[in-house]
Design a protein that fits this description.
four-stranded antiparallel beta sheet
């Protein structure tokens, strides 16, 4: 048998064998308990980069470990295949995005197979396949029937030269220019489709049924942004019947309003701006209209605004305050207007200070402690109302909140309410390479949903892209023109396509029934999957992926499950039981990998040189998986030495037990020590696999490797040696699947190492041997103490001095010397 470690030959041979055996394919009817393990599906960018390896191979190790612990593990893979990069590539190469996408998928499939992951390839899904996206369209129609899908005007980034909408990444520089023609980009309102995610805002704040990282829970909670407060009206002087509606969580500060601020997009701005202020207001609105919400809310930018010339009336005291517009107030949040209380809100304070507006104090600490000059006081607990109407003076939170709210309600100008930061999900995209929205626009009938039996609405294969990037669906006669399903008259299809996050909001269900009812006519009552399989296998038991998806993908999929459940098509409202977020692998310069920085690592080259097992091992050893870390070219050499050492140790006796070595006291002592370390290592490795602590479990196996190397000549052929080698192979199997299979088969031809039961450590064998420490004072035995044999010598003196009999004997004496003799005797010299 060839004992040379040929990683490429071994990986190729076992990949073929596993595929032939169907080792990793979905087994929905197995008697073993199910475990649905999922990693976020990749976008087919054309190359599997090191980030994919870092996200996927540790996830695969966890899935393999779970399978060896007796579970029927399902670990599928697919491609999130719609998106803007394909359209950009189509424009550059004058081809169809479909060809670019499928070429990339073919390449990445091969790269994924080289990874050695236990993908269930037969359950693969591609989101750009009509038999996949017809179910996204089916869900749209369901949501439309449930009033969860609707259409309204919303702003988008728009290039007036290219005459097309732009994605965020197509707007470049601080001047916000179109990346294609460098024309200044503007914000333009278009009639677009949305999903009513806000209906589920309160339910989405309930995380009691899922085990998710606290950081994700916090991010989603803040994104939903539930606030209890008061909404009230402020009339506008000189404009009878018109008023500004504002929301506040601090009605107890209402006496401190010194100005109001409207969003530049607020419809009242046009109506209340005075002639003298009109030019300045229009110029400011145009400038604000070219900025994104993220830019407008950035804490680092200088806050500015423009006075409209109008004044609003504070309903609680009748005082008139100026009305300004400022871009830090967004039309999409709250009411698009705020009451400004600069003494008790930091943003308002900065704005008021810049423009010389009053800053009246109306709450202060109840204990009378002063507020530092220049600071804002905004505490709720322990605050008291001051400088207000007599009936409110001295009211302490929350009584002040309740009394002011009651007064506004009595006046008929306000009421207590709950507000949310969360806004409905805008799903429209003005581009082609996405799921067509199944809507028809008829001059006679208006908006008409496409009948279920006519799904899917398929993207045209002969679309021609313009250099401007404008969607070819806008003038593709074969796609655009259609008969109205209601009246039969000429009509046009909706040309917007769906946000690609739609595809990834339900792919975990599609894996269970890939391309369910492919090619068949479907109906509104036809479920998108095999009900029984879905009920048996959901929710997903373990999901892994990046925290950057916390408030989009991970929130959308929770909404999607609830909406489907309310449609009667989903047995669970929470689709993901447990979530783990991995960190990010960085370049050797400790920066994010990018071609422009020249710090990108090509995994294909490393697999060719070192093998997939070494790659996987190093990526999991690089640091805690949830933290990530920088790539280190010398570090992978250490991982490769570990793999080679295990190969040499396991093949030292030709893959089978050699003749037993001579028995002796020293030999048996070594055997006991190796056995102890083996079972201690097995205990730690088992615990660390369950906790995704791959770096520390690999470190533990490396320690065992070192001990085995030092004991090789003495223990080779001993039963403990054989147990240690075989257990090490099993422990390595989830991380290094190829070499583990090869070494296992050399010893036990037949069933795969990945189908073996996970070994269980023996607590008795793992226990450290105890010795008796004799403690003498001036040569006389004062105490005896049982301690572990491997106790650090530096701790012996402390242990001895803590014994009650020793402390008693040393009363009124001075310790001159402490003399340890090994770990069995310690003599204290005292006078």
């Amino acid at each position: 048998m060839n004992d040379r470690y040929d990683h490429l030959e071994i990986a190729a041979r076992w990949s073929r064998q596993w595929e032939s055996d169907g080792l990793d394919e979905f087994q929905p009817d197995s008697e073993r308990p199910k475990f649905y393990w999922l990693t976020m599906l990749p976008y087919p960018s054309g190359d599997l980069h090191i980030g994919h390896w870092y996200a996927m191979s540790p996830s695969d190790a966890g899935a393999r470990f779970k399978r060896m612990n007796g579970y029927n593990v399902f670990f599928p893979i697919g491609f999130d295949a719609f998106g803007l990069p394909a359209e950009n590539a189509a424009i550059r190469s004058n081809t169809h995005p479909k060809k670019w996408t499928y070429d990339n998928i073919a390449k990445m499939r091969g790269q994924l197979r080289h990874m050695g992951a236990m993908w269930a390839w037969k359950n693969e899904v591609l989101s750009c396949e009509p038999d996949y996206y017809k179910w996204s369209q089916w869900a749209f129609l369901k949501f439309y029937e449930m009033d969860l899908a609707y259409r309204e005007f919303s702003p988008v980034d728009f290039c007036p030269s290219c005459n097309t909408t732009l994605a965020r990444e197509q707007v470049i520089g601080d001047d916000r220019l179109c990346e294609r023609c460098e024309t200044p980009v503007v914000r333009k309102a278009l009639n677009q489709w949305k999903y009513r995610i806000t209906k589920y805002a309160d339910e989405l704040l309930d995380f009691s049924q899922i085990d998710w990282p606290e950081a994700v829970v916090t991010m989603q909670t803040n994104w939903i942004g539930r606030s209890e407060g008061v909404e009230f009206e402020m009339g506008i002087q000189g404009h009878e019947g018109k008023s500004i509606r504002v929301f506040t969580t601090r009605p107890d500060t209402i006496f401190g309003i010194s100005f109001c601020v409207l969003s530049p997009e607020h419809p009242l701005v046009e109506q209340i701006a005075t002639p003298a202020r009109r030019e300045a207001v229009d110029a400011y609105r145009e400038k604000a209209g070219r900025m994104t919400e993220i830019e407008r809310m950035a804490e680092t930018r200088e806050m500015d605004g423009v006075f409209t010339g109008a004044h609003a009336v504070n309903p609680i005291n009748g005082e008139a305050v100026p009305v300004w517009i400022a871009d830090y107030v967004l039309m999409g949040y709250g009411t698009g207007a705020i009451m400004a209380v600069p003494a008790h809100d930091s943003r308002d304070n900065v704005f008021a200070s810049r423009y010389g507006l009053p800053i009246p104090e109306v709450i202060r600490p109840v204990d009378g402690s002063p507020v530092k000059e220049g600071e804002t006081y905004a505490a709720k607990e322990g605050s008291v109302m001051v400088n207000c109407a007599p009936e409110f003076e001295g009211l302490v939170w929350p009584e002040g909140f309740e009394k002011v709210a009651a007064a506004l309600e009595k006046m008929g100008l306000g009421e207590k309410t709950v507000n949310y930061r969360l806004r409905d999900w805008l799903i429209s995209r003005q581009r082609m390479w996405g799921t067509p929205i199944p809507i028809i626009h008829c001059p006679a009938c208006g908006i008409v949903p496409v009948p279920y039996e006519q799904l899917p609405v398929v993207l045209p294969d002969d679309a021609v892209f313009k250099p401007t990037g404008e969607s070819p669906l806008n003038d593709h006669e074969g796609f655009l023109k259609v008969d109205c399903p209601t009246c039969g008259g000429p009509a046009k299809r909706e040309t917007d396509t769906m946000d690609t996050f739609i595809c990834s909001s339900w792919y975990m269900y599609a894996y269970l029934s890939p391309y369910w009812k492919a090619g068949e006519t479907i109906s509104g009552e036809h479920p998108p999957w095999d009900d029984k399989v879905l009920e048996d296998w959901l929710p997903v038991d373990q999901y892994t992926g990046g925290i950057e998806h916390a408030i989009l993908h991970l929130l959308y999929l929770r909404f999607y499950a609830r909406a489907l459940a309310d449609a009667g098509m989903m047995p669970y409202r929470e689709p993901i039981k447990r979530l783990f977020n991995q960190g990010m692998i960085l370049g050797e310069d400790n920066e994010k990998m990018s071609k422009s920085r020249g710090n990108v690592i090509n995994p294909d080259d490393l697999v060719e040189r070192y093998g997939a097992d070494t790659m996987r091992c190093y990526l999991m050893f690089i640091g805690p998986w949830d933290q990530g870390g920088p790539w280190n070219s010398s570090g992978i050499e250490g991982a490769h030495r570990f793999i080679l050492d295990v190969w040499q140790l396991a093949t030292a006796a030709g893959g089978s037990a050699a003749s037993p070595a001579p028995v002796g006291e020293e030999l048996e002592k070594s055997a006991r020590e190796v056995s102890r370390l083996l079972h201690q290592t097995l205990k730690k490795v088992s615990e660390d696999y369950a906790a995704f602590k791959y770096n520390t479990l690999i470190a533990a196996m490396m320690t065992l490797r070192n001990r085995l190397k030092s004991e090789r000549k003495r223990l080779l052929g001993h039963p403990v040696w054989e147990e240690a080698i075989e257990t090490l192979i099993l422990m390595m199997a989830p991380i290094a699947p190829f070499i583990s299979e090869e070494l296992w088969q050399r010893r036990h031809p037949g069933a795969s190492v990945h189908l073996q039961s996970w070994p269980v450590h023996d607590p008795e064998k793992a226990a450290v041997e105890a010795v008796t420490l004799v403690i003498q004072i001036n040569g006389k035995v004062r105490a005896r103490l049982e301690i572990p044999a491997d106790t650090d010598p530096a701790q012996l003196e402390t242990l001895a001095m803590e014994q009650p009999k020793v402390r008693e004997a040393l009363k009124n004496k001075t310790v001159r010397r402490v003399i340890p003799i090994g770990n069995k005797l310690i003599n204290i010299v005292a006078a």
